């Protein structure tokens, strides 16, 4: 069964505590927090204070997906705010190896993220360092987009590399995930699914979290 990380980008920003606690009660495995700077992606969202304020209201892993340029300037602050896992895009920094080292030194788990158009060869050297790899299944920036159909092949290729080298990182997918697309990702080797609009644009978010789990059972 796949692990589920609801993305609060589609939650009610005036009721984040309520929505996070609802997700926790419904069996979510972590909370996905999308951080956007208006530069790396054409949207704005949360910052460190959101993470700090959510830290005491849930015992779930806080998974921060940084869509910001030069994340090296912020990873320590996110770790201090209470992020358990910090994801940085390989396209967002000149020094991906260094940023991942900084995340680990700060005491958080480290994740490298690849955009749909970025080949896996861009991250091969950092795979021994990471706890999780995030394969974007949409172009980052917004919730509610359509799943990109060629991405399961990329997940499969990463799963093969993982097996060949005996790596034990999780493979997360993010974008356009619903009860149908999650199955394709899971069958290809994904171990964690982010879901935003599928969960929070529903009148019954808890049922949607279960739908994703059941689809991969
Ligand atoms: C997009 C974000 C996603 C977003 C996913 O840039 O990284 O986490 O919340 O939203 P859905 O699940 O609606 O595609
Ligand atoms: Zn995300």
List ligands, each type once.
D-xylitol-5-phosphate, zinc ion
Largest sheet: 8 strands, parallel
Q: Give the second-level CATH assignment, the architecture.
A: Alpha-Beta Barrel
- Unreliable stretches (pLDDT < 50, length at least 5) are none
Estimate what percentage of residues fall within beta strands.
Answer: 15-25%
Rg, alpha carbons: 16 Å
Structural description of this entry:
This protein is α/β, with parallel strands linked by helices and 217 residues long. It has a single domain, classed as Aldolase class I (TIM Barrel, Alpha-Beta Barrel), CATH 3.20.20. The chain is built from eight helices and eight strands; from the N terminus they run βαβαβαβαββαβαβαα. The chain has an eight-stranded parallel sheet. α2 (48-54) runs parallel beside α3 and α5 (151-165) packs parallel to α6. The longest helix is centred in the last third of the chain and has 15 residues, at 151-165. The mean pLDDT is 98. The structure holds D-xylitol-5-phosphate and zinc ion. D-xylitol-5-phosphate binds next to β2, β8 and α7.
Summarize the structure.
The protein has 217 residues and is an alpha/beta fold.
What structural keywords apply?
binds zinc ion, 8 helices, alpha/beta, binds D-xylitol-5-phosphate, RibuloseP-bd_barrel, 20% strand, cobalt, TIM Barrel, 217 residues, 8-stranded parallel sheet, 8 strands, EC 5.1.3.1, Ribulose-phosphate 3-epimerase, single chain
Secondary structure topology:
Elements: E1 3-6, H1 16-25, E2 30-36, H2 48-54, E3 61-67, H3 75-81, E4 85-89, H4 96-105, E5 109-114, E6 132-136, H5 151-165, E7 170-174, H6 181-188, E8 192-195, H7 197-200, H8 205-215
Parallel strand pairs: 1-8, 2-3, 3-4, 4-5, 5-6, 6-7, 7-8
Helix pairs in contact: 2-3, 5-6
The structure holds D-xylitol-5-phosphate and zinc ion.
Zinc ion binds next to β2.
